[in-house]
Amino acid sequence: MDMGEIRVGIVGVGNAASLLVQSIYYYRRIKHLDRIPGVLFQVLGGYSIGDINFVSAFDVSRRKVGLDLSEAIFEKPNVTPKFVDVPKLSVEVRRGPILDGVAEHMRNVFDVEFNGCDPSLDDIAGILEDTGTEVLVNLLPVGSRNASLFYAEACVKAGVAFVNAIPVFIASDPTWGERFRRAGIPLLGDDVKGQIGATILHRSIVHLLHMRGVEVEETYQLNIGGNTDFMNMIVEDRLHDKRVSKTRAVTSILPYGDRLESEGRVRIGPSDYIPFLGNTKVCYIYVKGRGYVDLPVEIEVKLKVDDKSMIAGILVDAIRVAKLAVDRGFGGVIKSASAYFFKHPPVQIGSDEEAYRLLLRFIEYGEDM
Q: Which of 111, 122, 150, 155 is nearest to 136 (CA)?
């Protein structure tokens, strides 16, 4: 059943936005109904990936503001390669407020103009309304707390669903959840969990050990990459929420996870920026546990993926769930979808299999947790 289009806005026209936009046109070329490799839901609630249409976009870079979105996604410092032709979208990238969206050491990289007045909340909400944006996706740099809250506020004002892909705690904050519920608009978040990313793999390993009776004693996850995300995160001050988000996503599986954290037996998060890696993320995971008769169990894993494809592969589903919720008049946090798609949801589910079951129940019957 064809449900029509999904009108989507993007905050932050970086590498993730580039891959997300290109991926829509990549999959529009596929007309058959067979299962598509790499796609979890070919059709979700009646919507295909090709039903996603971009109608608004916001950034702060002089290289991108004023350009059509189809051009801005290939501007520096983006390094996502072009893999499909994107037609002119007639979507002008509008200037958003800077606030804390740009770290001091990233000003020249993003080529940001700090002079002049930032657009107001009413300005941004007005653009969302005028463009008919239904779902806004937050892809700002890690550490952009005030800027993210600004766009969440604009969504409440304009009546737009919000998908918070970064580690700023909005969907997991009961106050914001209640505000979106009262406004009658959906909210998903926080901090997108990659399709086969470091966090989901780490969770799977820890879950396996726990289910097989092994006591986890210590673990770390070290991530390196070469895009502006990793350059942004070399400053530890911008990493607090990111470390909390990734750590809780793993330790929440264990009934004694809080103790491991308090004892300093867990270390998870970005560890270095290596420019020549580009969008490639390399992750090293180590887990040490105690098995039968107290003999040791150690696991070491290396994961290598395109970081942005892992994000986009989840966002196309999160966007469609948000639109489905809009169609149904659902307001507030979609807890099942947040638990499955995001690292720091309001309710952590012990296993991803259970979160997936709850997500399917929401898609099919509209029943949330």
A: 155
Classify residue 163 by its DSSP letter: E
- Structural tokens at position 85: 């032709």
CA dist list (Å): 315 to 60, 162, 241? 22, 12, 20
What integer is the mean pLDDT of 116-123?
91
In the chain, the amino acid numbered 132 is G
Task: Provide the whole-model pTM.
Answer: 0.95
First and final CA of the chain: distance in angstroms?
27
Q: Which amino acid is at 277?
A: L
Give the DSSP letter of residue 112.
B
- Alpha-carbon distance of 261 to 6, in angstroms, equals 41
Do 103 and 146 touch, CB atoms closer than 8 A?
no
Interval 203-249: pLDDT, tens: 999 999 999 999 999 999 999 999 999 999 999 889 899 999 999 99
Whole-number Å distance between alpha carbons of 364 and 186: 17
The token duo for 281 is 């993320």
In angstroms, rounded to a whole number, what is the distance separating the alpha carbons of residues 180 and 190?
14
